[in-house]
Amino acid sequence: MLTFILRRVGLAISVILATLVATFVVFFAGPSDPAQSLCPENRCNAERLQAIRVNLGLDRPLTVQFVEYFKGLFVGRDFEFAGATNHCGAPCLGFSYHTGRSVNDELFSRFPNTVVLALMAAVIFLIVGVTIGIVAAVRRGTATDRILIGGSQVFGAIPYYILALLFALYMVTFWRVLPQYSSFSEGPGVYFAGMIAPAFILGLVTSTSYTRYTRNSMIETLSMDYVRTARSKGISERRVLVNHGLRAAMGPIVTILGLDIAALLTGTLITEKIFEVDGIGRRALQALFDDDLPVIMGTVLMAAVIVVLANLIVDIGYSFIDPRVRLA
Amino acid sequence: MSDQPLLKVTDLVRHFPFKEVQGLRMMKATVQAVDGLSFSLGHGQTLGLVGESGCGKSTTARLLTRLDEPTSGKIEFQGRDITHLKESELRGIRRDVQMIFQDPYSSLNPRHTVGSILTTPLKVHGLHQGKEKARVQELLELVGLNPEHINRYPSEFSGGQRQRIGIARALAVEPKLIIADEPVSALDVSIQAQVMNLLGRLRNELDLAFIFVAHDLGVVRHFCDQVAVMYLGKIVEYGDKRQIYDLPEHPYTQALLSAAPDIAVARGAQRAERIRLVGDVPSPISPPSGCRFRTRCWKAQDICAEQEPPLVPSTATDAGRGGREKGLHLQACHFPEVKPALVPEIVSA
Amino acid sequence: MTATAEQFTTTMGEASQAGDVVLDVDDLSIAFPTEEGLVRAVSNLTYQARLGRTLAIVGESGSGKSVSSMAVLGLHNPKRTQITGSIKLDGQELVGASQATFQKLRSTTAAMVFQDPQSSLHPFHKVGRQIAEAYRAHHSVSKAVAQKRAVEMLDLVGIPTPARRALQFPHEFSGGMRQRAMIALGLVNDPKLLIADEPTTALDVTVQAQILDLINDMQKEFGSAVILITHDLAVVAETADDILVMYAGRGVEKGDAKEVLSQPSHPYTHGLLQSIPSASDDATAELKAIRGAPPSLLNLPSGCSFHPRCDFQKLVGAACIDTLPEWRPTPGLTGRELRCHLEDPVATLQNDEGAK
Questions:
Q1: Which of A292, B84, B245, C333 shows a CA-CA span of 20 to 30 A to B20?
Q2: Which of C102, C120, C189 lies closest to A229 in CB terms?
Q3: Domain C3-245 belongs to what topology?
């Protein structure tokens, strides 16, 4: 187990480093010019633009910029801006070109919103998806199965942004069945109530793939010899299905679940945008429009860490589900 | 028969290395699938390889057909060293040595017709050019299938018929040696006999030599001249089938014969002694030191753990049965002792 | 019975004794509707299993030997299976019985040991827990008591250090050990009937011998009836008391196992026996094989299903093709029944053997 974790941490670090370098190269060496998006050409002349670039440190060689950035991550760095020196402690992700706030603040103030949305959605898609999947598997070949699977396929086939947009439009804006998003500072009650609409539609749409995974995985395990053995013991059918069938079917579901939650935690761009949830995804989208390089770097780095961690947790979790898996 | 054997195997070894993590260190481990096998086979002879799971009989079959390359040792076919030939140099060997597999369902490509399955080897070796179809029909007839079924797919045949197709494919290139790996064990009893008879008839008509890998002692006794009993990658006893079945000397051979259920018991046949081994065959990853059978052997002494018993000519059979004229009888036990009548025999009053 | 077994013996109803019929199968037919048509897996099957005796049900693949015994435990999906006739287990009719009925009798009245111990034990649950679960399903005892019972069962089936082994997972067991654990699981509720479906087919020869010995020992210990389903006549010769030979879903011959195997009276049994090479027989002449292959269960031959492969059909004539032979006592033999039109099957088959 210890060897496993050590090896995996090593692997994780190299993955994160590679992501870091790749993102840095793509954005800093790419055609984007943060100076121009801060001050369009019709307002700023070439001299002024160059001054902005010098101010942001973009005039220096790429390698120097990278070393600076890298240093900031581990030991922190100082920024001189408009005569004042701002210290940015490790892990320093820099300051937003646009808001001037530290990227750490920008991201961590929004991260809880993304986490709440992701977890609420996960609870919904797990409960709905796995339950429908089990029912469909147990009643395989019957009308129930066909209706459930057909329905979930139709639902899953509609583009998500259309469904989410319609849902927001009718349920939140027109009919006001569900409240709008409001920030946590306005009180936990309204905050969580505002999360219901985005979490519900996100969870419901994601559940369609869980229905499919669960049904397939259950059908496979229910045909296994050990399920027949369990049944021949005279235990209740519910116990056969849950303790023996579902227990074995959970393996592949847990694997996908880990990766899905990781994906949601790195920000659900469409959902956050449509329901105006102030999360990581929406902030990243804004940063892309603004050529706000430090924020882009920050979100990518955070996503890389989350995905790598999720993979690790999934593998460790899997070893608890399946005793035959020895972590090595 | 010429002096030179058709097939000569010397000290054949196949180890499968793999990595295993133990604690903080990466350990290199090896599956000792085949570990020092030596035997030879004459033209038209049949050698049976018997043993339980992990004994290396199927790995041996793959090595002899050079579907797999030995770790060390030597395989000579008609005097030519084929141990490490490259794929391009194996063409001639592929023609002379053919294999029949256990599973008639997975060894035939379901998308090809019988005709194309049987034509491919002819084309590869440039045989019967321009008359391939006639040859394929002749082959089908030879194995007892309807030559008109040339355009059918494997799925349209029963298990026994598929095994006949597998046999026809092996015979297409007119081999001298056939390696048959459990050729009848996937078949129903009533079909087994048909396929056994077919193999026997072909062996006589075409003067084929066989290496016959099987776990069924009855089938091996019926079909083979020589028998090699294997345990964890080594031959523990080798001899003429009468020597092996009637006068076994190695405790493992004795246990195997005694454990195999035999239909003759219904006719009142009885065993002189009933031997029951304890436990299962150990893993071939780290086999026991010295004699590999010692962990399950009732005769085991200290020496068995320390020294590996060599495969040596049996003294008892030589003395008792007129020696070498009856063929070589080898065994690898520190304490050999003949135990007759471990297979059930009718006891006359 | 040892103290261990006695201590846990559940109520056996009115005093049962060796020889009592535990399972009475009468005119049982099982069919599965499929897209290609009706698969007639078992047709008009009749047999009995008795306490203290081992009945071997023998046949090739597709003979219906496993299908018929799975029906005893109600393990077929009722929605996809057509079952007619009668299965009486310990006096209780099971054809048409509810799942609740089956749930109560599984493991307590009838239990099953399956072919492949590797796939038949749950890979994620500890061995002891799997056995304890079966015990708790029928006894209101604490987990600790059930676990103790599981350890005792493992001990009984010859697993060394059973307390430690009970806490291991199936993949930590060897093949033979796993099958011992399956037998422990089968016997944990002291069933009157143990059905062993090809229990040694997946095992090595030397381990097979151990497991067959164990089944015999356990039968003596528990006094239950055993049904041994196998394709291997040699296994039958060494272990069974009675035999039922099946072909294409029907019984064709039944009687004392050793007698049937030494003097068969049905042409199919006769053919099977002649096609098996014996390890104690040096003969290298051609085996006498049965020609052709078993029929498709979608499309069974008329009359006697075996007639297209039978060498003696011409002696009888059209009756074999037109009429299904009924069970009747074999002329000249006691305790033997067969389904064949041959007038004097024993003499006919003996002549055939002589002519060989």
A1: B84
A2: C120
A3: Rossmann fold (3.40.50)
